[in-house]
Amino acid sequence: MSDAAHSTRREVLKAGAALGASAIAYDALGGWLDAAQARAQSCKAGLRDIEHIVILMQENRSFDQIFGTFPGVRGFGDHRNREAFFQRGYHGRGSRNGHLLPFHMDGRKPIGQCVGDINYPTHNWRPQHLSWNGGRNNGFYTSHAKPQPVGDGPLAQNVMGYFKDGDVPYFWALARAFTLCDMYFSSVIGPTEPNRLFSISATLDAAGTHGGPCVQTTFNSMGLCGPNGQSGTYSWTTMPEQLRARGISWKSYTENTGPPGTAPGNLDSPFPAFRQFLADATLNRLGIQPTFPGDFETDLERDELQAVSWIQVSSNKSEHPALP
Fold it and tell me: Whole-angstrom distance between the N-terminal and C-terminal Cα of the chain?
């Protein structure tokens, strides 16, 4: 492996390790971003030039909160979304005739991006569908504004808060350098587990034939598992199994949130919910056992990264709004 390749991998590891702090991560990009863009210029075969796909899903931030003011996107400048940007039912400070409009939150302040737990229970299936309101998207404030613990109380107005370039420079630098997809929505109008199931299988088993449907988030010590919190509930075919059937290499790296020395357990990892990942030694070895960042860094340094990789970080690194 060339010195340049080694250097590029080191820069990737530095940037990834700093992901939780946007400004630090921006500095860590350093020459890696320039090197990556230079390599992109030499690509000639289109999609065939792509050697590795790494999938990282973060938590509970909307496109508009991060990129609503990014030049050229369908963000706050999209006048067709007026009803979504004028949330009804708000009569507090800054109200516009009973409406709450998008407002800037200073993400550069200490814990400025930690905006409160606008999540449980208000990001579950029913309140999220009330927010969506049949496609009118005008119920985000009212569905969150109920008193705690049913709603988010005074924190509800944060649903319309957004960040600018200086608040999240890492993400804006990536967006400027590469491709940014606007009109981006979650797969499921609902909480964590259904969306993470989509990220590794593109379904939540709506027909209920293989242990689903999964429309809520349930927990146990091994992760997001089953309607009653048990492991090995689901049995439908996942993307890793489809990749294996086609001879395409894959691996999932999980940050261990359990005691040191124990098997990786992570509330955001969906694989322990699947029966076959507990019973099949290969699926278990590749889908549950590999660790992040340890095994991921090792595979990068050794040039052994698989064709498709998933990264399951801990909740504290998932950018969940209530966490640092």
Answer: 37
